[in-house]
# Entry
Amino acid sequence: MHGTRLQDAEAPQSDRRTSVMPNMCDAVAATTYHELNMLTHGSHQNKIAMLPRCLANSSSFARQGALLLSFVGLSLFSVPAAGGELDEKLAEVCETESVPGMIAASVGPDGIIEIAAAGVRKRGTNGAMSIEDQFALGSNSKSFTATLAAVLVEEGLIEWTTTISEVWPKVSVDAGFKDVTLEQLLAHASGLQRDLPLHGPEWLTFFDDRDKPEQQRARMCALLLKKPPEGTVGKYDYSNLGFVIAAAMLEERGKKPFELLMKQRVFVPLDMTHTEFFSMKRLTATRKPLVWGHSETSGKPIKPGDPSSENPTVYASCGTIRTTMQDWAKYIAWHMNESAAPVLKLDETLRHLHEPTVDRDSPGESYGSGWIQFQSGFGRTLQHAGNNTNQYSLTWVMPEGKRATLVITNTAESQAFKACDAATAILMKSPEFR
# Structure
């Protein structure tokens, strides 16, 4: 087996006992769109006359309730009017929602339409956020993993229906997991729990950075797959751990570490030259100016490389990618255009990534391949959010409307979602977006 010797994987002894709580806490934005049904057959300009409702799904954000993004009279919070400079409007959002900094962009078929940054890299300092800064995608890393899976499917190395037991036929796997497929893992339908217990000794050992990422994944697989599923296979139940197993399957069949496969098959073809996987150790060694995250509980700055500044390397497939807005826009435009080259060979393979695998709890919403999927006034719509516990990202992708929005803020406090939601509304209301 290449890089995933599950039968040999043992949890290393560790004397590390930290109070850090580095769980993904991915705030996946849920959506309800009854307001948009009437607009489905309207003109493109009319379709954006009413913007969608976003409701975060994780425990950190669900308590906020639904925020309706719409024009004057329908908005539940103040959004700057259309017209004027985007950076000024973002600065207003930073001040109104009390977030340290933001970067936002809208994307069309040919790339970025508008882009701006506002606020500071670190709360309490004067270092301004830049449109060229790298930031954490959190769970917006998940669709990248599904995209890599699509590449290997086209290459004949794996199938969407390939099961865990087919990848590791000689490994002891609980009967409940044997028939779980790659596609179910990529859709939170594997029966796996969300994460390991946050303060448990097993989880804390993954922050030691003593092993290579592929060894970390092998150890995680050994911990998880010998026990019965905690959830129901085939039913949506958000799980970061499912993407860890999926990554191990991909590197087993791809015969290379997951991170290298991602770079060669996705980052390089899309010319994403400022996109990479980060760990706390990698952040510590980086000398260029970095965006500081801010604690989701206290709001205090977290120095890059310090405990809780990033997830462990075992979570590469579900949340350790850092990128720039320009690079992320290349990736999102590729998804939005639904044209296979340069990553894939067939358009239908790319479109498969935008097809639902499992229904979510909210009516009209599905999930598949790292995307929440639904119909809106823009037509087919993909959405996802990410939170590495100190930075927050949110994207909307409308393949039929040929528009997308990308927003990040460098905090995971409760107001992060509302700030990104407000910035999304600003982008969608812009004349340039129409």
Remarks:
- The chain has 14 helices and 16 strands.
- The radius of gyration is 20 Å.
